[in-house]
Write a structure and sequence with these properties.
Layout lengths: L4 H27 L20 H4 L2 E4 L4 E9 L2 E3 L3 E4 L2 E9 L4 E5 L5 E4 L5 E7 L3 E6 L12 E7 L7 E6 L3 E3 L3 E10 L5 E9 L2 E9 L4 E9 H4 L2 E9 L2 E10 L7 H20 L1 H23 L1
Bound molecules: dinuclear copper ion.
Length: 304
């Protein structure tokens, strides 16, 4: 059979194109490591993210320069916001949605993933220099889609810490009752940290030095005598490094809706409290006697 030369050339050109197309598609799907969200991770329940990775979205250290960031996207924000990581680090982001489809895209980079409810998107990113990146959502997710944004701060090593502070105290106490202010400090680094927890209330300042192991949480309770503060509103502030938490406690003559029953309960509580005090008594007394020294230490530290 005789095939015309031009027809032969066209047949060869068509073959080359077909092989070329197949090659580019194969390279795009295998060579570049682009995968579908949900290929790598188990599914989660989006409406109640009780999965411990996402119930408290956060950054945690997992290796010398390696970090994991657990991020949730919801109408119309990202959590945590801002996300803070150190320079020269490798960060693996795990991102999921609490409601509808969003996306997690670092502006000006090729870091970009769809965020699908029920699925966990995973991306590993290397950060070099300190820089701020905007995070945007580029999947239409509702009326405020255009306002859905966040930040990733890549900060210098010496400005980076992974300490979380959460302090709690009662809103209202009766004169004469103790006020317990509890500071919960979490260290999300791998190495232990040494720091000072300081409570300011009224004219009083009390401090306690703590050492917290990597990945651990420390609870420090300061007990303040409400009678010394007097009736009224008293603002308190707990400080750990650059982190602060503050609120107001009101000392009242007598708590409202105090039935006879309640009073009886209160009394029994007081008894148990007294028992607790004896247990933790050693620490408590030491704290109070140490106060002045620690204070001057702390102010000395500030001067540096
Ligand atoms: Cu979230 Cu658009």
């Amino acid at each position: 059979m005789n095939i015309h030369t031009y027809e032969k050339l066209w047949l060869i050109a068509a073959m080359v194109l077909i092989v070329g197309f197949i090659a580019t598609i194969t390279y795009g799907s295998v060579g570049l490591g682009i995968t579908m969200v949900g290929d790598q991770q188990d599914t989660v329940e989006p409406t109640e993210l009780d999965d411990e990775r996402f119930s408290d979205p956060r950054v945690a250290q997992v290796g010398e320069n390696e970090y994991e960031a657990y991020v949730t996207a919801q109408m119309f924000s990202f959590q945590p916001d801002p996300i803070e990581v150190p320079e020269d680090s490798e960060v693996t982001f795990y991102v999921t949605s609490r409601d509808v489809i969003h996306s997690f895209s670092l502006v000006g980079t090729n870091v970009n993933t769809m965020v699908i409810p029920g699925e966990v998107a995973e991306m590993t990113v290397e950060f070099d220099e300190p820089q701020d990146y905007g995070v945007v959502c580029n999947e239409y997710c509702g009326p405020n889609h255009h306002n859905m944004e966040g930040m990733v701060h890549v900060v210098p090593e010496d400005e980076f810490d992974l300490t979380e502070l959460d302090a709690e105290a009662p809103d209202e106490v009766e004169t004469g009752d103790d006020i317990d202010v509890t500071a919960t400090v979490e260290n999300r680094l791998l190495d232990p940290i040494e720091t000072t927890v300081t409570l300011e209330i009224g004219n009083e300042t009390v401090s306690e030095d703590v050492t917290i192991d990597g990945g651990e949480t420390d609870e420090t309770t300061f007990t303040v005598d409400s009678a010394q503060l007097g009736e009224g509103d008293h603002e308190w502030t707990v400080t750990v490094d650059e982190h602060t938490d503050s609120w107001t406690v009101t000392v009242v003559d007598e708590l409202e809706d105090g039935d006879a029953d309640d009073d009886a309960d209160d009394e029994s509580n007081e008894n148990t409290d007294a028992g607790d005090d004896t247990d933790g008594g050693e620490n408590g007394t030491e704290d109070e006697t140490d106060t002045d020294e620690t204070e001057s230490d702390a102010s000395g530290g500030d001067d540096e």
